[in-house]
């Protein structure tokens, strides 16, 4: 940035927050440049350019008024942003209501290399229906959406995205992958490195969406657990000892429901995930934990339900107010078929029973919810108890039923599809007349358009806010320094946010981070180390002790070693103490004090300093001692 040495110099700064690069116009030119390009077009959506004083002694009164005007404009922009965001949320909610709060999709896995492909395939699909032909019978099942064998992970995620937006808007959300073992549940939820599934994509998108929202701050935390044979296992719990599988510690989880109906799992590990890298790291850890348990204790992963929860905390403008939390559940359910197919016995039979029971309980709950029945049987399984507050009224549920294309699996395919159809219950689109369906579709398209427009407008406003905020903060700082306004205002996280040019590189703005930001305002080497703090505290105590003895007539001098620095901000008192070291006669104390105060340009009458400027010490005991010390010193004067 070009800074003039003249008394007053004005520079109009363009800012591109995406690129984050700022360039001032060349001397004498009226054009502004960004990354070497003239900025005429970029300036179109800029608020009226604000003036930044870079080297001033006085900012004219008129400019101050203009600044105030800009502040009120910013307020208007923020209000506009919030109302557009509300409009978008309402449109999305209406869309989800029309589509149904519980949606059931079906995905058919492609043939694997090891599988034999027949000329007449047993499973055929339409846009919203699946037909299964087995010996002499033909069964048709309807779904909200059917994904054919070549559907990509992107296509599947595109259908999940609206529900994700809903989670960010504050709703509880639940995505469930259901189906026979080997039909692709884990592939859909987890995916592979080349073809990431829903969970990694959701994580990525959550951070992306949250970072675009200026109006509130969002933080995320993650928990992962397994439901195995009716027990809950914490997948993110730290292991007690290396290579030890502490079953008791990891299974010791209770499900609690509070008066408001909110579910909490006592003892479940919840980790903060301030950025995407951390989120991915924890997710990978949880996945590994699951497979480790499989290796060590010989439990097949498909014999348990794996649940990943992202808690989304929404902090509004008021950081002191309690954050609103919404839950985003992503569940890879256990395979449903083994009991039927293998005629298992013993432990395997028990596992199969446990899975089937909990799946059937889940089916009952979803069917009851879709029928809008008064009683919903949540208590019938641990799985439904955990998900209780994320399957109910204002929540959004998405069930993805997975089926195999193979002839050998037809029996299980029909079972899975029947289960999913039961979850869809009577409220199926297929049972509605054609004209009503068309009307629905038309309304959805209208709402989608409305939502898109609101979103676009909102984005423009957000850009304007960011630019205005930057210019304002620049001007504000200069006005503050010019008018010597003491900035006593406590720095709340919101203020900090305003003071930053680029807000939210990741959405996580936690208390710790704010504290860190405040600490970071000093260069790192200037922050006290533990040792220096100890030395400083010892030094302070020593000074007080000696000052006391000095005042009470003891002829002890105060020694300052080179490495000991005084933390006193109060210069007169510091110099009094230093002088007292040189001239240690009690009789000279008053003279020393007067001299020292004169030296600092202070009059004795004005020597009583504001409280904020007084000697401070980190140790509360020391603070009391210092107060006494101050009183004695003032008695001397
Ligand atoms: N849509 C798909 N495209 C390509 N490969 C797939 C697809 N779905 C599943 N597969 C492959 O099928 C195999 C079985 O899938 P996966 O392990 O996801 O099944 P699953 O239902 O989770 O099984 P389990 O219940 O045992 O965990 C894997 O090799 C996977 O890569």
UniProtKB/TrEMBL annotation:
Q: Which Gene3D superfamilies does the entry mention?
A: Kinesin motor domain (3.40.850.10)
Q: Where is the Kinesin motor domain?
A: 101-426
Q: Which GO terms describe its cellular component?
A: microtubule
Q: Which UniProt keywords apply?
A: ATP-binding, Coiled coil, Microtubule, Motor protein, Nucleotide-binding
Identify the SUPFAM superfamilies for this entry.
P-loop containing nucleoside triphosphate hydrolases (SSF52540)
- What is any one GO biological process for this UniProt entry? microtubule-based movement
One Gene Ontology MF term: ATP binding
Q: Which residues form a coiled coil?
A: 64-94, 437-471
Similarity annotation: Belongs to the TRAFAC class myosin-kinesin ATPase superfamily. Kinesin family. KIN-14 subfamily.
Stated name of the protein: Kinesin motor domain-containing protein
Q: Which organism is it from?
A: Jatropha curcas (Barbados nut)
């Amino acid at each position: 940035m070009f800074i003039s040495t003249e008394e007053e110099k004005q520079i109009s700064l363009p800012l591109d927050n995406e690129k984050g690069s700022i360039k001032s116009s060349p001397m004498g030119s009226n054009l502004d440049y960004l990354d070497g390009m003239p900025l005429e077009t970029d300036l179109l959506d800029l608020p009226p350019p604000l003036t930044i004083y870079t080297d001033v002694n006085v900012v004219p009164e008129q400019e101050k008024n203009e600044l105030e005007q800009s502040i009120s404009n910013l307020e208007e922009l923020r209000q506009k942003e919030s109302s557009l965001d509300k409009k978008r949320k309402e449109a999305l909610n209406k869309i989800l209501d029309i589509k149904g709060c519980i949606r059931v999709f079906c995905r058919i896995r492609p043939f694997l290399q090891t599988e034999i492909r027949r000329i007449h395939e047993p499973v055929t699909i339409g846009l919203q229906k699946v037909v299964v032909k087995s010996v002499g019978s033909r069964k048709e099942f309807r779904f909200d959406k059917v994904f054919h064998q070549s559907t990509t992970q992107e296509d599947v995620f595109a259908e999940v995205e609206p529900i994700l937006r809903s989670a960010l808007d504050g709703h509880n959300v639940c995505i469930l992958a259901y189906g026979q073992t080997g039909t692709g549940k884990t592939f859909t939820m987890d995916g592979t490195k080349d073809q990431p599934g829903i969970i990694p994509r959701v994580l990525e998108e959550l951070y992306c969406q949250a970072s675009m929202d200026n109006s509130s701050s969002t933080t995320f935390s993650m928990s992962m657990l397994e439901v195995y044979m009716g027990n809950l296992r914490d997948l993110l719990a730290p292991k007690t000892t290396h290579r030890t599988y502490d079953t008791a510690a990891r299974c010791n989880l209770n499900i609690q429901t509070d008066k408001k109906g909110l579910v909490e799992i006592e003892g479940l590990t919840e980790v903060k995930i301030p950025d995407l890298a951390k989120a991915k790291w924890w997710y990978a850890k949880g996945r590994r934990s699951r497979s480790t348990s499989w290796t060590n204790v010989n439990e097949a992963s498909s014999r348990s339900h794996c649940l990943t929860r992202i808690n989304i905390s929404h902090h509004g403008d008021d950081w002191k107010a309690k954050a609103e939390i919404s839950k985003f559940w992503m569940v890879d359910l256990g395979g449903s078929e083994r009991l039927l197919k293998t005629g298992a016995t013993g432990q395997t039979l028990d596992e199969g029973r446990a899975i089937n029971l909990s799946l059937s309980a889940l089916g009952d709950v979803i069917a009851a919810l879709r029928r809008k029945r008064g009683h919903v049987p949540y208590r019938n399984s641990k799985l439904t108890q955990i998900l209780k507050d994320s399957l109910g009224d204002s929540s959004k549920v998405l069930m993805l039923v997975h089926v195999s294309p193979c002839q050998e699996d037809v029996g299980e395919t029909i079972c899975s599809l029947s289960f999913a159809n039961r979850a869809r219950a009577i409220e199926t689109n297929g049972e509605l007349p054609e004209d009503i369906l068309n009307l629905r579709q038309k309304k959805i398209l209208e709402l989608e358009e409305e939502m898109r427009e609101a979103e676009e407008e909102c984005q423009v406003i957000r850009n304007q806010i960011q630019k205005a905020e930057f210019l304002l903060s620049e001007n504000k700082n200069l006005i503050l320094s010019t008018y010597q306004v003491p900035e006593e205002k406590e720095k709340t996280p919101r203020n900090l946010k305003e003071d930053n040019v680029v807000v939210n590189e990741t959405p996580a703005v936690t208390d710790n981070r704010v504290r860190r930001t405040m600490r970071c305002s000093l260069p790192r080497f200037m922050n006290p180390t533990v040792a220096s703090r100890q030395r400083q505290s010892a030094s302070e105590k020593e000074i007080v002790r000696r000052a006391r003895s000095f005042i009470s007539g003891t002829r002890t001098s105060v020694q300052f070693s080179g490495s000991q620095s005084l933390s006193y901000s109060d210069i007169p008192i510091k110099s009094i103490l230093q002088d007292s070291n040189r001239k240690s006669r009690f009789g000279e104390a008053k003279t020393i004090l007067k001299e020292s105060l004169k030296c600092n340009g202070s009059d004795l009458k004005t020597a009583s300093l504001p409280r904020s400027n007084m000697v401070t010490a980190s140790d509360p005991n020391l603070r009391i001692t210092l107060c006494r010390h101050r009183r004695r010193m003032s008695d001397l004067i």
